[in-house]
Specification:
Length: 140
Amino acid sequence: MSSNVDSPLGIWAAIISRLDWPTARDGVYPASDLLYFLSTLKLMREPVFRPSPRPIIIMIAASVQSTEASMMQVTGSVACIPCERCAGGGGMFTQCVTVTGWPGLGHCANCHADGTEDSCHLSYPITSVDGGNETHSNME
């Protein structure tokens, strides 16, 4: 997926969508099937990062999993009711964002980035607040 740096979504959405760092690519292809799927989705938002002593590019490029989470954040839907972890200020992003359409992806981007997918508390149906995906539950 290509994106212009001058996109109204912002510089970080453009950088993330390019997947232009070693952990994001396996040669010319996205490093995981999930990254390939996410790269086909429309960019929905500029990510907002929580304050951290680590540079943002280090956070998003640290691993395939953090890159997937960053793509989830820019392509997914914001939960009307955030998971407990996001509501408590956990994770690298300020919004609790999920993506539908990928088997087993019933957790938010923050929990995905931190490897806490199994404890993500999005166990109730959620409706997006941004006109994206209609409903989703990790109990499906």
